[in-house]
Amino acid sequence: MTRLIRRAAIRSTDPELFAALVSACRYCGLFSASFAAHERACRLDPNARTSVTHTYFMAGEYLKAADESERHWQPGNLGGIALLCAGHPDARARMAIESQRYGGDEMTDAFVAGDYARSRAAGDRVLATFPDPEFHFYSALLFAHSNYDDRAIEVLAGAVQRGFFPLETLQRHAWLDRLFAREDFQAVVREARRRHENARIAFVDAGGSRLLGIDERL
Predict the structure, then answer these.
(1) H/E element holding 207?
(2) Which residues contact 168 (CB under 8 A, 6 or more apart)?
(3) What pLDDT does residue 104 have?
(4) DSSP letter (8 states) at residue 73
(5) Rounded to the nearest 5 degrees, what angle is found at the Cα of 59, between the Cα atoms of 100 and 177?
(6) Which residues are CB-neighbours of 39 under 8 A, at least 6 positions away?
(7) b or e along 78-110 (b: 16 or more beta carbons within 10 Å of the residue's beta carbon)?
(8) Domains of the chain, residue spans
(9) Residues 95-140 pLDDT 10s
(10) Mean pLDDT lowest for which of 5-14, 55-64, 101-110?
(11) What confidence category does residue 217 fall into, taking pLDDT thresholds of 50, 70 and 90?
(12) Which residues lie closer than 8 Å to 160 by C-beta, 6 or more apart?
């Protein structure tokens, strides 16, 4: 994140640097910065592609996440899950459509079918070979929604340790409410808070607030 900030301060007309900052800031839980980077990338290039749909999701703006995922089709879009989090009646139908659109996903297919045991098994197989911590975070949400609490917390802890620590999402996502009474979940939240605060300080020190024109308190 800080390297991108410093590069973007020098090459302030490069939309790709700001598009990359959308993801980097989101991984650190800095959603205001992620949104501001998206806006800058789109001002520089109206056709710029960013990962802002995932920032909308992590910030709890599920309908915006679903709308954005339909505006720009690409693998990794999770508009159906966003609709499910919003309580939308078309959520599972959208999830099935997206599974077909992006080439099939056994974890999601089984989840849509209500076969949570098969969904978890498929998810575990993918997690063993696909290291992206944001994907792990999404998987943990599905595990929690399927009542696999121990596995959800284990996966969340791993995601935070590997660099994805959206503190606000951990604190506010409804699917995680049931876990709040558990000390092992609170340990995950504490670690995310520590990393988030360090990232916020690093963001400000690197000039991120000046670059993106946002309040340094985020």
Answers:
(1) none
(2) 29, 31, 58, 59, 60
(3) 65
(4) -
(5) 90
(6) none
(7) bbbbbbbbeebeebbebbeebbeeeeebbbbbb
(8) 2-212
(9) 888 877 776 678 888 888 889 999 999 999 999 999 999 999 999 9
(10) 101-110
(11) low
(12) 133, 188, 191, 192, 195
The Cα diameter of the chain in Å comes to: 51
Q: Exposed (0-12), middle (13-18) or buried (19+): which is 71, by Cβ within 10 Å?
A: exposed
Q: What is the pLDDT of residue 76?
A: 66
Structure tokens at 95: 């999830």
- Token digits for 64? 């915006």
Which helix or strand (DSSP H or E) is residue 81 part of? Answer: helix 79-85
The token duo for 128 is 């063993």
Q: What is the pLDDT of residue 15?
A: 97
The structure's pTM equals 0.93
Instruction: Let me know if domain 2-212 sits in CATH 1.25.40.
Output: yes
CB 93 within 8 A of CB 106: no
For 158, the enclosing helix (H) or strand (E) is: helix 149-161
Distances (CA, A) of 104 to 85, 126, 131, 169, 196: 21, 13, 19, 27, 34
